[in-house]
Write the structure tokens for this entry.
Amino acid sequence: MAVLPMQRISIYALKKDRKKVLETLQRRGVVEIMNAKIDDALFQKMDTASAQELFHKNKSVAQQAVGILDEYAPRKKGVFSKLNGREEISLKKYEQEMQRAEEIMKTAYRLLSLEREITEQKSEIQRLQTQMEALKPWNPLDISMRFQGTAKTAAFVGAFPEPYEYDELQDKLSKALPDITGFYLEVVATQPEQTCVFLLCLKQDAHKMEDKIRAMGFVRPAAPAKRPPAQQAEWYQAQELQAKQTLEKAREEILAEVEKRDELCFAVDYYAMREEKYRIISRLAQSKHLFIAQGYIPQTAAPALAKELEGLCSSVVECTAPKEDEDVPVALHNNGFAAPVESVVESFSLPGKGEIDPSGIMAGFYYVLFGLMLSDAGYGFLMALACGIALTVFKNMEIGLRKALNMFFFCGLSTIFWGVMFGSYFGDVVTVVSTTFFHNPVNVPALWFVPVNEPMRLLLYSFIIGILHLFTGLGIQGYQLWKAKRYKDAVYDVGFWFLLLISLVVFALCSDMVPKILQIPFVLPEPAGTISGAGAICGAVGIILTSGRESRNPFKRLMKGLYGLYNVTGYLSDVLSYSRLLALGLATGVIASVVNQMAAMTGNIVVFVIIFLVGHTLNIAINLLGAYVHANRLQYVEFFGKFYEGGGRKFQPFSAKTQYFKIKEK
């Protein structure tokens, strides 16, 4: 349970050593470099926007090239490939590949060029196929569609928008053109949406003919070719074949570059690192011969880095405590039990100034609540086993994923514990199988009790856990106030609430109704009720008198005090929220039992196994998601609401933010 203490670090070095210093800082990844504030005319900042743009472009080009290779020659990835993490390369290999970066980029640009060529050829093939499809009706025509007649005749090649047979169209044209001495009609093709025709008439009748057939909807073909349609189609086919050959050649060239995929992946990472480095360079204060880098570093990492930099070159490293008003970044550091839930805390917000890291205290509650909501030993065993194997086998797993699997591993152990306590092993599968297939019922008794048989008992313990959870949050608030030397605030905002809430709980247990509803086998004696009633009154009066203490107006102070006391209903609502532990715990067990009963109804062992696997897979998936969501909610709303505001800024060190490789140094 710790927020890493930060120090302000200032690095003074010669400009000729800037490359070595920055590359060392980037590989170590422990310093967040600030944007320098320049108060001296001797220093200035360097504009690296153009360099960053160039590196970003190279990174994008290399990434596109990798995508092209992945499209034409997909990687052979296993089911668990995501668990492998980034490939490790030595610093020596990194430096060797770095020298070949420009050569690798030539390959990347060539791949992009080939991809463009393939895209163009695909478009050309599509265009040619469309043209050939449009020419099909005209293939019987043995002259060019551009033909317009001879010295004494006029020709019309085109189509009417309706389907006509020869006799029908001939008769219609004869009636429409009584003044024309004669004309020749040839129906080239008839289709449902058009009739393709060749018309010939004397030249002196051309205008009359054109006016009449246009009135009937006649249109000439768009951009007709010089060749006859059949020859033009053959030319299109030859062009299509050539385009396909060009496309296939480009595809083969792409496939020939597959062995360079790792090099291109390296280029993506290399230019990403260079882009980041030049972004940092723009933040430095620099003179002609000197540069200054300032930022924040975890106190534990400062001595080792200072020693390394001072041994690397002529540099001076100064580490000091940050000032009170500085916006210091936040980094969390916890043991193996609490570290897995850091992501849960970070999803809400990192600790603000003066707040503690809640991960350590939250972890125990989180695992208990999660396990109580899933509460099946079989499901917990599968969770813990799967996560344990993954954590053991995949040593190179990324830190974030490792923490997530560690969290679910502990949640699995908690689920096993509660499953054993409640006697749930894939529901009641032991009893169902022994009864259905062996006709000899075998029951695995619960070490504590069976929630389905005693739901009110589970509800009672859910409320008890909820009260402990809430009181822990309230206690942390008191600790933070006391640590900040706000002793009065600790008494007013925490002490009075503890007095009121504990007194109300004791007072409720002195009545006959509450123990009866919750099936509590005892009632506290009357003196305890008298004392707790007096304590509740004292707590309530204290809250009324102190909740509005910042107001000078007595009336406003009283009204704010009454409003503050009204928040007791919020505590009641928070306690009732823990009834979800009962709801989800029962849901898991009941659905599991229903699945077992459905499977057993068939009486067939094979069908039983199939229904069992499908049903329990769905049940564990749904209820695991529900347990995760509601465990988070109980932390964020009920627990954090008592003491935690967050608002801290995440520590973002200058580091090698790579996608494919990580540099490993001895």
Remarks:
- The CA atoms of residues 475 and 494 lie 7 Å apart.
- The first helix runs from residue 18 to 28.
- The mean pLDDT is 92.
